[in-house]
Amino acid sequence: MEKKAPDSRRNILRANLTAYGFLAPAGILVIIFFLIPVLLIIYLSMTNLATTNFTTNVSQMEFVGLENYAILLRDQFAGKIFFNTVFYVLVTLAIFNVSLALIVSLLTMHIPRRAGFAFRAIWILPRITTATVYIMLWRRLAVEAPYGIINQFNTLLNQPTYNYLDARPWEFVIMANGFIGVSFGMIIFTSAIESIPKDLMNASLVDGSTIMQRIRFIIMPLLRWPLLFVVTYQTLSLLTSFEQILLLTNGGPGLYDTEVWSLTAYHRALSNYFGNAQWGYGSAFAVVLVIIGVVLAVIYMRVFRFNELVAEPKIEVL
Amino acid sequence: MNKRLFSVLLVLMMAVIGVFGSQAQETVDITIRCKANVQGGEGWRCDNFSEIESQVEEELGIDLNLTLIQDDIGWEDYKTEFLLSTEAGDAPDIILSGHEDIGSWAPAGYIIPLDDKLGDYPEFDDVVSTLWESQKWDGQIWGVPQDAEARPIFYSKLLLSDLGWSDEEIESLPDRVASGDFTFDDMVATAQQAIEEGIIEEGFGYWHRGSNGFDWLMPYYAMGGEILGEDGKLVWDSEALLRVYEAVASWVETGITRSDMLGLSSSEVVYPAVSSAEEVLFFQGGSWNWANMAKNYVADRGGNDYLLENIGLILYPAMSAGTPVTVTHPLSYMISSDSENPDVAMALIAAVTTPEANNRHAIDSFHLGILNSQVESEAYQNDPVLSSAHYMLDYTRVAPNHPDWSAWTNAYWLGIQAAETGASTPQEALDQATAQLQNEVGDNITYK
């Protein structure tokens, strides 16, 4: 027994090393592309780096502590931009990225296979279209008469015309982003539904279940893991995406009406018409976004009981 | 070796050295970066360097390898690109940008002062002297003006005629504005009258720039505001600002300006509507808009001739300060501190600072001339638009080159957005803008 102990420890060590070895590639990627950038951004947010004192030499940057965060807290529009972000993420996520994605995947799973494939391919188009071209199409739809496509129909039908990007900015921002987001959830949900064992479906059919009953009692419970993944991933994706809003409304019209947090970080750090970009202050906005993202990810994991989802099966699977 | 053979060999050696020596002439790589709307006639900003390349090669006895990079990306991206390329040690030798960037780039060390080099080239003596003011920071000159412009108000002769104005009244409007007889209030009243009489739709009386920019300095100056104090600090003049915010709010309230004017797409809505001269009575634009409209919006109606017949240009009429104004925003050639050949870069800039080269740009893009001899040249004088608008330089003001200018103008623009969209009252807009500026730059600004 005494002789076996070192062997056992060695085996455990070897097993652990093997596990870490397999984890290493992903771990290195996370360190390089997430951890180090986050640490850099946190440091940048504590400097006053701007166009007038710009340098890539970290040691030459002027450390100002939490001054940028103090300025951010005193910013009279930070609250409005924060709630804009919450509204934009929640509505886009709820209506498009989850609900519509689920509806599209369910519908296309219940029609002939080829037709379903064709429809899903069409829904993927917004995602694979270049952002600039995609937004140009939306602008062309929304712009006022006689140039806008919607307004051309309004004119034909003797209805009043509008500058939709001014009159309905949020609707267009959410739709433009939502239609891109649908495809992601649709693919995940479709593959998850496909992988549900046929036995379960057949058994429910034998029991005389309706489509709605199958969705409610078989499909939905088995989609918890993909739902967690889609909700988490898409929340973080929406929190950090701004390019469509930048191209569509640039945060307007009016006073920060569709400005979201990540767009403000971009406006402050990278884009300034008069050429004085505030890298340090913009980084403070970005750090707040990282914190919100991490907190939300933890909350989602609790709500969806992540630990149970990844727990080892209680019976041995051969 | 006899003397004759020695002489022959010597001559041969010298010939060989001469031939190969000249072939081994130094090659100098110069990269030039320009922002230009080529379709709008601005391509000469970079293309002029191709025209004078061989001339400079001959003068300096070098081979030039010019790389000209020219496109019309947004100013934000353009400036960020220069910033990052400078940090990477790969900045272009010559960068064309707004003179206000001197206020940020000079203290950061991205560009070099040019005072020592200017004296070597008589071409620079010809530059309109007032334009040099816009090239200064900290007592030194950091750029060479490339162009100048006015930001006039375009008025529709067609619509004024419909309103019952006589030809004489229409044609004399620029003079009446310049003399202060026709004020901004008169312009607003005219626009209101045109709406009341059904000549134009509500909201089409006065259009202005829909985004932040130098144009907005005009109402501030016209209301008596000053920007640069004697102590070198920027000035935030609350009284002038409040008047501006009251004015922009009233434009929408009285119905002469559209409520969605801010953010309205220029290319999709503004230029087509203004260039037809049939929809918008007054439009505050930039002189270069004229060339763009002639080439790209009314080309099928006769282009420049159509515009000349149906649209006129006036200064920004007098507001409470009592005098009309306009603003010019000279673009400048600057030399990067990364450049290994700043003297060659300077020679190139001098070679394009001539009446011939600059007229190509001025006439094609309707930018005002920057050289005294250019303004007097036959080509410039024969251009009906340039020659009729050049007087506006006498009324022009410029923005300061100052590190805090960006924060100042962003706060000012915040107030304009707040007041014009009705999100805030003019007084609230002023309070919000002031709070924004104080939060970001504190006491670096003089608050009046």
Molecular structure report:
The complex is a heterodimer of chains A (318) and B (448). Chain A is mostly helical and 318 residues long. Chain A has helices at residues 4-44, 67-74, 78-109, 113-128, 131-142, 149-156, 164-167, 169-194, 198-206, 211-222, 224-240, 243-248, 261-269, 279-303, 306-309. Chain A has a domain at 83-279: MetI-like fold. Chain A is built from 15 helices and no strands. With 448 residues, chain B is α/β, with parallel strands linked by helices. Chain B folds into two domains: 26-148 and 330-397, 3-Layer(aba) Sandwich (D-Maltodextrin-Binding Protein, domain 2); 153-327 and 404-447, Periplasmic binding protein-like II (D-Maltodextrin-Binding Protein, domain 2, 3-Layer(aba) Sandwich). In chain B, 48% of the residues lie in helices and 13% in strands. Chain B is built from 21 helices and 15 strands. In chain B, the strands form five sheets. In chain B, strands 2-1-3-13-6 form a five-stranded mixed sheet, with helices on both faces. Chain B has a four-stranded mixed sheet with strand order 8-10-7-11. Chain B is globular and about 105 Å long. The A-B interface holds A 51-56, 71, 74-76, 139, 143-144, 147, 163, 165-167, 249-250, 252-255, 270-277, 281 and B 75-77, 79-80, 83, 87, 97-98, 100-101, 104-105, 107-108, 211-213, 259-260, 262-265, 268-269, 272, 403, 405-407, 409-410, 414, 417-418, 421, 423-424, 432, 435-436, 439-440.
